[in-house]
Every structure is written in C-alpha cells, then in structure tokens.
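Sanity check record (used in CI):
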Amino acid sequence: MAKSPQLTDYVRLIIELFDRFRQERSANAGAKLGRPFRYSEESFVIFFMLMQYRRIYVCKSQWRWLHKHPEVVEMLGWEQIPHCTTIGRRYKRLYELLQLFVLFIGQNRSGLAEQLDQSHLVEDKSLFKARGPVWHERMRKAGRIPPRLRNLDTDATWSRSAYHGWVYGYGLHMTCNQDAFPAMLQVETAAVSESQVLDQKEALILNQLRPQTVAADNAYTKAMRIRNWKRDGVLLLTPAHKWVHGRFARAYHRFIQLPEMVRLMRNRRISVEPLFDLIAKVIGTHAQQKQLPVSSLDNVRSCLALATLSIQIAMIVNAKWGLPHRNISDIATAFQ
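Expected output for Transposase:
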C-alpha cells in the first residue's frame, strides 16, 4: 500500500458513494430518474474537484486543460471532451446535486470512525467576500452601477459579522458535527439571516439527521423554535442572551448551564470555525474576508458546495487510512 492516498483512492470512493446515492434517489423517486446524462454527474463532480484544487475556474481554461490531459478524459469515462458551454452549464447546475450528496454522505457514514458521528451537531454561518469590487449599498438599492466599475458581482449583498466586519458577498450556512465533519450546507447571499436559513433546514435536521443536540450562537435563538425542537427530541443549544424572562426561559438557562451542555456549546467554535478555514484553503483564499474565485450566486453555490464535499471525502479517507482527521494536504496533493 502507498504511504498516502492517491487520486485513484479518492475517485474510487466518490464513485462508490455516488452509486449508493443514485440508488437511494431512484428508490425514493419510485421510478427511473429520466434519461442518463451523456457525461455522468459523478464524472463532472470529480472533474470540477480537480479544477478547484488546480485553481482553474474559467470554462475556456478548463476546456483547454482537458485537451492537454487525455489521460484524465479517459479516467472520467468520456468518449469526447464536452463543449465549453456544457462545462459552464453543468457547473452552474451542480449546487442542488451537491447539497443532496453531502447530506447523503452525512447520513451514511456509520461505522467509519468516531469523528464522523453526528449525535451532536453545530450550526453556523461564515461570510465570503464577492469576487471583484464592492457595490455600495445606496447605489445597489438604486440599481445604479458606477460607469467605471468593472467585473461587479451584482448578485452579492451586504452583511456584517463581529469577526469579518462588513462584507459584500455571500454566506455559507454550515451544519457539521463536533469534529468538523460536514452534514449539510446552504449558500445564500450575505444578507440572508442565520435564523431564516435554519427555518429552511429545520425539517431535514429534525426528520433526517435527527441529532441529540444542535449548538449555535445567539443569532439562532428563537423561543418557539427551542420549544418545538425539544418536543421533536432535538435540543437546540444557544446562549439565548435576550430570552431571559418567564419560567420557560429560566428553566432553559438552568439547563444550558449543566456541565455537558456547557461543553457542547464551548466545542462549537473549535469545530465549525476550523471547518470554514479548511473550506477557504480548498478554494484558495487566505485573506480575512475570504474573497471568492468565482462570481454570481449559481457559481458561488457550486464552488462552496464542492469544497464542502472535498472536506467530507478527505475526512472519510483520513479515517480509513488512519491519518489526522482534519488533514487536507493529501487530497490537495492527489488532485493537483
């Protein structure tokens, strides 16, 4: 056996997981999903992962790269190289597929390692700066673009965080376990709130992931949500700084002061924040505001979802090979 995983090891795992994912989708659909793609979904996932680690994001450059690497075309099982337009279209449509695939992997990781257990989850949002210049809010609301402003991402919006300050860009809403293994993701423009996205994720968390606890910061606090989730068997742990009056609030604050709850809430930062850092490294951004390499909501969604999948695949392989859990250097080397 090689001293470290090779590209074929990662590709084999992705294909194996995708086969199981396709079977589950077909079973849930109750019928065939339609005519198969000329270029399979999993082959494009692998291809775009290669491009992401190589920092090649322009469709024309990706198309030219394929012409110079026929061995990769053969590995992907393509009889011919897809047209540049096809590459761009498939990338924009990747997000919803990757959302479902990441969720599937999160639910089907049992028996691999203790670090992949999802009994206790964490929810958080991280801001990523849009590629190109910023669009000042007054002009954005008026729909006016300054005449000399070039390469402006008009899909992005403004938001503020304590760590990043004001950011014009997008928000990655991540659900992961206490060891930073991703379970579910959603990408929206920066202005979309954490609480709004958690409402959209609620059914999946309660009915499919079914954790014992979900730890989050104060932005996710909503008294009715906390009470409803408890009735469904999931404990939502937040500081609840403003929910302090009434017997239910007082009982909740006594509960979150229990040693085990304090530990779970304290572990939130040391799980999800390093995960956001890993995702930033995968897409090749290192500045504090994490500027994205692509523009427009469709492209940004695919970019961040693909990076999240990369982390999942890396962590599963790390568990199988006995490597450090949060190591991404081996997958980066293999895909470069």
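The chain has a mean pLDDT of 92. If this sentence no longer matches the regenerated tokens, the check is flagged for review.
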